Amino acid sequence: MLAATRRFAKSWVALVLIGLLIVSFAIFGINDVFRATPSDSVVSVGSRNISAAEFRQTFENARRNAEERFGQPISTEFAAQNGLDRQVVDDLVQKSVFGEIMHRLGIRPSGKLVAEEIRKIPAFFDPITGAFDRKAYEQALQGVGATPAQFEAERVDGIAQQHFGSAIASGFTAPRAYAALTVLQALEERDAAFFVVTGDSVPRPPPPTEAQLAAFMKENAAQLTRPEYRVLTLVRFSPDAVDAAGPISEDEIKARFDYRKDTMSQPETRSLVQIPVKDAATAQTVAQRLTKGEAPEAIAKSIGVEPVIYEDKPKTAVADRKVADAAFQLAEGQVSGAIQGDLGLAVVKVGKVTPGRTPTLDEARAVIEAELRQEAAAKAVYEKSEVYEQAHTSGANLAEAAQKAGVPARTLPAVSKQGLDEKNQPVEGVSQQMLEVAFDLPEGGESDLQDAGNGEYYAVRVEKVIKAAMPPLEEIRGPLTQAWMQREVRNALQAKAETLAARLKKGESLEAVAASAGGSPLQRAVGLNRRTAGQSSQIPPQILERIFSARPGETFTATGQGLAVAIGKLEAVRAPQLSEAAQFTEGVRQQVAPGLFEDMIASLDRAARGKLKPKVEYGRARQALGLDPAETPAGAQGAGQ
Which element (helix H / strand E) includes 458? Predict the structure, then answer.
C-alpha cells in the first residue's frame, strides 16, 4: 500500500492533480475547505462551528502535550477516561463564546495588527535571517494540524480578548470593604482542644475468610483488573540504525557548499531606532535632536509617537522596506534625514553594526558532511523499506520480509495500550502511534508499513493477545489481605471516634473522654489564625481544616495521618483588633484583586453562555476519536452549556 502510494505521488498524474488543487485554493480560497458544516459540528456558538476534525486535532495536540509532560505514552481511551475529551470540548466552548461576544461587541483587531502580532512570534522566524518567514509559519502550523486561516482567526479572538481583559484589569481595584472582610477572616483567632486515637487503640480484626476476600476483590475489581496486553514483533526502518559512515567525495562536499553558501552566510545586522514623523519639518527637528544624543524614547514621546527599535536585526527584519534600504546605507552612529517609507515618513539612527560573514568551505565542512550522511541514511532507509514492502505484498510474513530487507525484527515483552509491561514499567521502542496500530489488529495480524515521520517507517505483528482479566486470588492474596485488614481497622477507628464525639456532645469533658480513649494526651491550640496556622507542623493540615471550618463550641472529628482520627472541640473564636486589621487591609486589597478579576471573567463567561446558548455534541466528539458515542456525560448529548 505505501509503496503504491509513493509511486503514485511521483507520477505525472499526481503532479497534475496537485497543481489543480493549488489553483482551486488560489481561486476559491482555502477557508471553505475547513469551514464546519452544522451537521459536522461538535461545538456551535452563534455563527461559529467547531468541526469534528478540528476537535480531533485539538484533542490530539492536548494528548501529545500530556505525553510530553508525564514522559509516557497516553492512549486516546485512557485520556478520555480521565476527562481530557470533555476538557477540550469545554475549552473550545469557552474560546468560541468569548470570541463571539467580543465580535458582537465590536471589539475586533485590524488585519494589520493581527499580521504584526504574528510576525513577532519567534517560532515563525527564519533561523538564518532572523526575520519572519512565511514557509516556516506554514510548516509550524502544519506540524500541529492547523491552517493559516484557522490560526489567524484564533489570533483575532485572542487579541480581542487580551485587549478587553487588559482594559478592564487596568482600571480594576478591589473594594476596601472586601479586603477588610478578608483580613478579618485571616486574623480571626481560634482556640481548640483535641486528642488523637490510632489504629492501635482498636482490636485487631481476625484474618478475612475466603468469602470476605472474594467479596473485597469484587468490590475493587476496577482497580485490580489488569489491562489487555499484547506480545508484538516490530520491524523499524530508521536513519539512526543505518550505517552511513562511508566516504563522501570532495566533489559532493564542494557542490553542496556552493549550493548552501548563501543560506549558511550570516547577514549584516544592525541595531537602529526608527521614529515616525508627520512632516519634513518635524523630521529635521527629530534628526537634530538625535544627532545631539538625546534619548530616542524622549524624542518620540514629545511628538506623540512610539519609537520602533531593532536590536541586532538583519535588513529583512525591518518592516518598512524603504526605511531598511536607507538605514543599511548609513554608517554606525549616523542619523538619517526624512525617509519616505512605505508606511510614512521616518527618521533613523543607526547603532551597532555587525558585518555579515560567509563561512569558508573548511568551516562548513562538518555541517555539510552531516547533511550528506543524513540524506544517504534516509535514502538507504527508503530503499530498505521498498524491499520490505515488495516482499510483504508478495506473501512473505513480517519476519521474512524484514530478513530480505536486511533489518532486524524484534519481539517485545507483553505491552498494554498505555505502553507499560506487566510490571507497570514503560516498554522501550514503542510509540503511541505503534500501539494504536497494534491494538487494532487481531492476534496473528500484521500491519502495512507505517510512516512514523522524520524519515522512519515501521510494521508490527501481533503474536499474542492477553485479554484483560482479574489476577488470580493466590497471586495477590498477601497485599489484598493487608488492604482488607486496614479497611477494617479504619472502619473500627471511625466508629470509635464517632462514639467518643457523641460523649462530648452529651456534655462529658474533653479531659475525661480523652483519658478513657487510650489515645494521645489532650492537646490545646490557642490563638490559631488562618494567616499563620499553616506555618506550624505540629498540627496536621486535616485537623487545622476542621478547626477553621467548625462553629464555636462544635465537636468535630478529623482524619489524621495514617490510621489515626482526631476528636476535638472548637472552644473559642475571637475577632482581631481593628487597628491590627487596618494595617493589613491595603496590602491585601492588592492581593485579592486578581482573584476578584478572575471571578468577574468567570461571571462574564456564564452570562455569555446563557445568552449565546452554545450547543455541544459530546457523542459526535467521542465518535471523532473512535470511541463509543454512547458513553457521554449524563444529559450532555446535544445539550446547550
Answer: strand 456-466
